[in-house]
Design goal:
The structure holds two protein chains of two kinds.
Chain A: H1 4-15, E1 18-25, E2 28-35, E3 38-46, H2 50-62, E4 68-73, E5 77-84, H3 92-103, E6 109-117, E7 125-132, H4 139-147, E8 152-157, H5 158-173, E9 183-189, E10 195-201, E11 204-211, H6 220-239, E12 250-254, H7 257-265, E13 272-276, H8 278-285, E14 288-289, H9 299-308, H10 319-385, H11 391-407, H12 412-421, E15 427-436, E16 462-470, H13 477-494, E17 498-504, E18 532-540
Parallel strand pairs in A: 1-4, 3-14, 4-8, 9-12, 12-13
Antiparallel strand pairs in A: 1-2, 2-3, 5-7, 6-7, 9-10, 10-11, 15-16, 16-18, 17-18
Helix pairs in contact in A: 5-9, 6-7
Chain B: H1 2-80, H2 89-102, E1 105-112, E2 116-120, E3 129-142, H3 145-158, E4 162-172, H4 178-185, E5 193-204
Antiparallel strand pairs in B: 1-3, 2-3, 3-5, 4-5
Helix pairs in contact in B: 2-3
The chains are: A alpha/beta, B alpha+beta.
Chain lengths: ~550, ~210
């Protein structure tokens, strides 16, 4: 399974961030130029003298844009383990700052590392608080940092950062396994200081000690003997912190190989001791590139490890400066992101412009085709409309003629009906037909280009017919009246669309008539009367 | 520190410039170019749709041409039948006389009234159709009522233009008794029926100029 440090390492290699790491010790400084986890170049500066400070400035000025990570490894480091109450993450920085100010008043470089929940009944979290106190060895370097153009990226502590280095090395030795409740010690030989001891418990910093470099002693056995005594003192110290001598201590030594061999022969009070040269340890830690030319000192390894990591274990950089740096980084990355987005936008804009060019050409082509078709259509329509009389006017005239024809009434069927229903005793003395012809109209909805509609319904023609019947052949008035009524009934039956009314009978027997009979007169014998009946038919002639 | 301050200022200026350029490019992309592209595509689609529509209209023109040809033919027939143009009264008199003889109308008296021009309103953009209408009143006598009816039908068919019967009255003058039949056999007494007919003789003006509009 890929662990968080592995992922960080992968990210470190992938991003290959370039940076300077300035390792500041009591005896001097080391400047390293990193590209990811690869050491591009390095230089030692022994002592905080002006020439060295100028040398560091010059080295940094070669790449003024590269950020600088400061790693301190000085005697003036103070560590305190303390508890913070459980507060929400918004208040945590304030509580932390207050605690740091209480623990290390007046110190600028200080920070805290959360270790985990406190044991016991009191709720809270254990923190490892650390600070670098000002000292004459360090102050010139700090002043120099205020004068350089390179941005400061972070300030870290070597012992805290190298806990992971020790974990990595022990893990490699154990075949990747990392046991709990394990005490480990890393002893490394430094050019910028002396022998650095880092003791961890459960891969957390227990104590860190710096002892003299024994630079005046040449004999490896003698140095080994002195170191044995120092390590014994360290073990005495950690015994007070809960170390059980029975469980033993895993020791890793990084430094001169002859000192490593001397330590192995010296039978240190540790369970096992593994000695590495800085190059071997660097290879195990994944550090590549430039090596320490002497092959003795582990400063470069620690600097590359602690300064090259993307996420520090503990930053002692002041909160305000860190925020300023974050803002600067935000601006830098924001500018880069905007530039990238602008580039993408530019490409997108170019593709849009290209598409517009194509779309415009396509539109012009389509418009030209439409125009050509419109011209052809108009020409065809003009040809169709050509003539002395517009087609719409022709259609209006045709429509009028059709209406007039539709209004014509053919009376032949009526004559046939009349002839078929008149008896031989009746003569038709007069027939009068009045036809109410509807005037022709042009329908307002008639579309100019549409053909004239069909002829209107012929049944809409109204009219009136008056028949005068000669009933002189009848001697009996009752029979004559009956004949008139029979004919009227027959016409009603044959012509149901018309209203048939007898408007005159041979006798004045209709409701509108005045019927007068004189004494002795036989009205039914038709004496002196005109024997005539009139029938009126009104309604639809067609 | 001065260098750092200058660097910060440069960073800020760079960020502001990058932001301005980014906003400008985004505006150019989404505020101008993209709407322009959409506009062009819409116009292209509209032009293509219009072309398809015109193509369809051109295809419809064949059907319209067939309809127009049929209507032109019908119009020409109306023109030929005299439905268009002036009503020639002299010609009408000639026709009436010819038909009178043909249908054995013994006595014919007729009157053609003055022309009444009526405009039939049409579409708002048209001036309408001007129709000339003359009332013809016929008084005739004859031997058979069928002669009267046939004479009326013949007038309808023979006169140029359109003739509508608005009123017809046929009255028997006398019954064909022995004396009348004897008179007829001697070549006289041929008037047994009289008829009064009113006709509307109608024609339209072929063009508005001809109608005097």
């Amino acid at each position: 399974m890929v662990t968080l440090p592995d992922m960080e390492g992968i990210a470190q290699r992938l991003t290959a961030l370039k940076r300077f790491v300035l390792l500041i010790g009591d005896a001097g400084a080391l400047i390293v130029r990193l590209s990811g986890s690869r050491v591009e170049s390095h230089a030692y500066f022994c002592g905080a003298i002006d020439s060295n400070i100028r040398g560091v400035k010059l080295a940094l000025a070669e790449f003024p844009g590269l950020p600088v990570v400061i790693v301190y490894d000085v005697l003036g480091q103070a560590y305190r383990r303390d508890r913070l109450p459980p507060v929400n993450f918004m208040d945590r920085p304030k509580i932390m700052a207050r605690k740091l100010e209480t623990l290390f008043p007046g110190t600028e470089l200080k920070g805290g590392l959360r270790l985990g929940a406190s044991e016991g009944e009191v709720r809270g979290y254990d923190y490892l608080f650390a600070a670098v106190t000002a000292s004459p060895e360090v102050t010139p370097w700090q002043k120099m940092l205020e004068q350089i153009e390179n941005p400061i990226s972070d300030v870290r502590l070597l012992p805290v950062e190298s806990v992971r280095l020790l974990q990595r090395l022990v893990g490699k030795l154990n075949g990747g396994e990392s046991k709990s409740a394990q005490w480990n010690i890393l002893i490394s030989q430094h050019r910028t200081g002396g022998f650095r001891q880092i003791v961890t418990r459960d891969h957390r910093l227990a104590i860190a000690r710096m002892t003299s470099g024994f630079i005046d002693i040449e004999s490896a056995e003698e140095i080994g003997s002195l170191l044995q005594r120092e390590i014994g003192a360290t073990i005495d110290y950690i015994t007070r912190l809960g170390f059980d001598r029975a469980t033993g201590l895993n020791a890793v030594f990084i430094g001169r190989s002859d000192i490593g061999a001397a330590l192995r022969h010296a039978q240190l009070p540790v369970r096992n001791l593994t000695a590495f040269s800085p190059a071997e340890a660097g290879a195990l830690a994944g550090i590549s590139g430039d090596h320490d030319e002497s092959g003795h000192f582990a400063d470069l390894l620690h600097a590359a490890w602690g300064g090259g990591r993307l996420l520090p274990e503990l930053s002692i950089w002041p909160q305000q400066k860190r925020q300023q740096r974050m803002q600067t980084l935000g601006r830098i990355w924001g500018t880069r992101a905007l530039a990238t987005a602008s580039l993408v936008g530019l490409i997108y804009g170019a593709s849009l412009a290209w598409e517009i060019r194509d779309a415009e050409a396509e539109y012009l082509q389509a418009e030209a085709r439409r125009g050509a078709l419109r011209l052809a259509y108009d020409a065809e329509v003009s040809r169709l409309d050509a003539g002395p009389v517009p087609i719409a006017r022709m259609r209006d005239i045709i429509a009028i003629h059709r209406q007039l024809e539709a209004a014509d009434v053919d009376l032949t069927p009526f004559y046939s009906v009349l002839g078929a229903n008149m008896s031989e005793n009746v003569r038709l003395s007069s027939i009068r037909v009045q036809i109410d012809t509807p005037p022709p109209v042009l329908a307002p909805s008639q579309i100019q280009d549409s053909p004239p509609g069909p002829a209107p319904d012929a049944a809409s023609v109204e009219g009136k017919i008056i028949l005068i019947l000669d009933l002189s052949s009848f001697r009996n008035a009752e029979l004559a009246v009956g004949e008139a009524e029979r004919l009227a009934n027959a016409l009603r039956k044959e012509l149901p669309h018309m209203q048939t009314t007898i408007i005159r009978q041979p006798l004045h027997i209709l409701p509108a008539d005045t019927f007068t009979v004189k004494p002795g007169e036989n009205v039914l014998a038709f004496t002196g009367e005109v024997r005539v009946a009139e029938i009126e038919l009104t309604g639809r002639l067609k | 520190m001065t260098g750092n301050t200058a660097g910060q200022s440069f960073l800020m200026q760079g960020f502001a410039a990058a932001m301005a350029i980014f906003v400008l490019i985004m505006w150019a992309c989404f505020g101008y170019l993209r709407p322009e592209l959409v506009n062009y595509r819409q116009m292209t689609n509209a032009a293509l749709d219009a072309a398809v529509s015109i193509n369809a209209q051109i295809k419809d023109l064949a059907a319209r041409k067939a309809r127009d040809d049929a209507d032109r033919h019908e119009f020409q027939m109306l023109e030929k039948d005299g439905f268009l143009g002036e009503q020639n009264r002299l010609n009408a008199a000639r026709i009436l006389e010819r038909l009178r003889v043909q249908h054995r109308i013994s006595g014919l008296e007729y009157q053609i009234d003055a022309v009444d021009k009526v405009t039939i309103p049409g579409q708002p953009e048209n001036t309408g159709i001007v129709m000339s209408s003359s009332k013809i009143s016929l008084n005739m006598r004859g031997f058979l009522d069928s002669d009267m009816r046939d004479f009326t039908i013949a007038i309808q068919r023979g006169l140029p233009g359109h003739v509508t019967v608005t009123e017809i009255e046929i009255v028997k003058l006398a019954s064909p008794g022995n004396d009348l039949l004897a008179l007829i056999s001697r070549g006289g007494g041929t008037e047994l029926v009289s008829a009064t007919v009113e006709l509307q003789w109608q024609a339209v003006q072929p063009a508005k100029e001809a109608a005097g509009i």
